[in-house]
Amino acid sequence: SRFSLQVQFDLVVAAFTLSELPSVNEREEAVTTLWRKTSSYLVLVENGTKEGHQMLMEARDSLLKKQEKVLHDPRPASVFAPCPHEMMCPKLAQDPITPCNFQQRYQPLPLPGRHECQTEKFGFLILSRMGPAETGPGGLDWGRLIAPVLRRTRHIHCHVCRSNGQLQHLVVTARKHSQ
What we know:
It is found in: Mitochondrion. This is Methyltransferase like 17. It comes from Characodon lateralis. Helix content is 18%, strand content 31%. It is of the alpha+beta class. The chain is globular, with a radius of gyration of 19 Å. The mean pLDDT is 86.
């Protein structure tokens, strides 16, 4: 291996793992172990609750700020998604705190009595060893959508998290913003 005898993988995924661990120290240790196994991207998925969001932000802060005693791979962590910045999550600064989460419809396993689609909220975090994500084409910084887009007759409402660490409510119209 380039850095040590440690085995690394391009993609490491851990879904609903942090919420199973009882303490901050155990979660931090698990995230550090997962990060050591990562050569490109680490994907963490948790329930879309306040607690799940806070666990993801703990993991994010731990990997961005903590210096390891034994360096397995010298490339630092950077946030790939959904955050367009590495500052404190602006949703944690709101009162009341609202989690950064996303809804997904899914078809459950075809068990007796379960045929309808269901919706689940989840939160995720993708960290990368590849450096921070770049701004969009032409250097435009639109931010990342953090809520479903609300379509109205002549405009749409977008709620975004900006690269400056602020939340913004944008009203987009064809007249002001072109097609």
